[in-house]
């Protein structure tokens, strides 16, 4: 195994999920200015000392799937992606609408077909599955989609595959998320078993959580819109203002997913010139060069 303590990742992805963007003349039901939160998150990405290989947006891109909402999202995201030099990889969520997403966000002909696609970033493959079931909040994958996935995964990528979809193939600790799950997740586990899929990336539940799908790590990234409190009693819904994005660092034989808070209060700062000698001393003591 690669020792992550002294090797650099070969690839870093940034995941943004559950943006729930509304049009400029609309307000999100929570009262949160979701476009402003997205802009804050993108500024943090741009300011970070990383060059993400891709920005992966795992669904619920908009609140209602309306053209004006996609137009606004596109106008916010595309200039930043161009500046950081990272491709945008989009998955659809249950709040999205396939035809409007295609026409107004991707600039491709509108179609109601599932938005399944593949992006290669260097040696890494990112496979996106459309887990939405039009007209419903829960998720599902058709036999045709699973067949397409099996065919795609039959040919491994040099650095493996990250599989992105909106609905996490996991149980849930929160009653709302548990009521709108990905159905028949065992079928997805079967399609992924024995392939080069290293990580499943999802969103949808509005909490940060991790699990496994047949032994493959599953990461549910935290939302940019309201976070749900998993300790809220019973069916009570508590919305929290704790937006986050995720960074996914891939090493040759290892990976780590990290939740990054957005807009959190900074309570301390130690300058790099102070930290660097301290880190060097720690590394020397641990004999990690
Ligand atoms: Fe959502
Ligand atoms: Fe969702």
Structural class: alpha/beta
Q: Over all CA atoms, what is the radius of gyration?
A: 19 Å
Approximately what portion of the residues adopt beta-strand conformation? 15-25%
What topology, given as strand order, has the largest sheet? 4-5-6-7-9-8
Average pLDDT reading: 95
- The stretches of 5 or more residues where confidence is low (pLDDT under 50) are none
CATH class wording:
Alpha Beta
Largest sheet: 6 strands, mixed
Oligomer: single chain
Are any ligands bound, and if so which?
Answer: fe (ii) ion
Domain tally: 1
What is the CATH homologous superfamily assignment? Metallo-dependent phosphatases
Topology, number of strands = 13
- Please give the CATH architecture: 4-Layer Sandwich
Percentage of residues in helical conformation: 25-40%
Overall geometry comes to globular
CATH-derived topology: Purple Acid Phosphatase, chain A, domain 2
Helical segment count: 7
Termini Cα gap: 17 Å
What is the N-to-C order of secondary-structure elements (H for helix, E for strand)?
Answer: EHEHEHEEHEHHEEEEEEEH
Structural notes for this entry:
The chain has helices at 34-47, 67-84, 98-106, 143-153, 175-179, 185-192, 272-285; strands at 11-16, 54-58, 88-91, 117-121, 124-128, 161-164, 197-202, 209-213, 216-220, 227-228, 239-240, 244-251, 254-261. The chain is of the alpha/beta class and 289 residues long. It has one domain: 4-Layer Sandwich (Purple Acid Phosphatase, chain A, domain 2), CATH 3.60.21. A six-stranded mixed beta sheet has the order 4-5-6-7-9-8, covered by helices on one side. The protein has a five-stranded mixed beta sheet with strand order 3-2-1-12-13, with no helix packed on it. The protein has a two-stranded antiparallel ribbon with strand order 10-11. The longest helix has 18 residues, at 67-84. The model has no long low-confidence stretch (mean pLDDT 95). One fe (ii) ion binds at residues 60, 93-95, 166, 204.
């Amino acid at each position: 195994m690669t020792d992550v303590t002294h090797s650099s990742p070969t690839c870093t992805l940034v995941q943004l999920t559950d943006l729930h963007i509304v049009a400029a003349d609309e307000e999100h039901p929570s009262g949160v200015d979701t476009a402003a939160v997205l802009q804050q998150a993108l500024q943090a990405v741009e300011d970070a000392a990383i060059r993400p290989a891709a920005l992966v947006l795992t669904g619920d891109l908009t609140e209602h799937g309306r053209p004006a909402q996609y137009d606004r999202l596109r106008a916010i995201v595309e200039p930043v992606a161009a500046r950081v030099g990272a491709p945008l990889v989009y998955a659809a969520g249950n709040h999205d609408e396939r035809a409007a997403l295609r026409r107004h966000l991707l600039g491709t002909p509108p179609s109601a077909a599932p938005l399944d696609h593949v992006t290669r970033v260097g040696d890494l493959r990112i496979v996106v599955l459309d887990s939405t079931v039009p007209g419903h909040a829960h998720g599902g994958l058709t036999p045709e989609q699973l067949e397409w996935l099996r065919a795609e995964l039959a040919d491994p990528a040099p650095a493996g595959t990250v599989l992105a979809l909106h609905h996490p193939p996991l149980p849930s600790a929160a009653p709302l998320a548990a009521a709108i799950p990905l159905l028949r997740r065992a079928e997805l586990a079967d399609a992924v078993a024995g392939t080069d899929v290293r990580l499943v990336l999802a969103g949808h539940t509005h909490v940060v959580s991790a699990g496994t799908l047949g032994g493959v790590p599953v990461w549910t990234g935290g939302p940019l819109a309201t976070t749900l409190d998993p300790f809220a009693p019973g069916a009570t819904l508590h919305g929290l203002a704790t937006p986050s994005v995720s960074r996914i660092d891939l090493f040759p034989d290892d990976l780590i997913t990290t939740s990054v808070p957005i807009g959190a209060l900074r309570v301390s700062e130690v300058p790099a010139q102070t930290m660097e000698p301290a880190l060097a001393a720690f590394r020397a003591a641990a004999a990690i060069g």
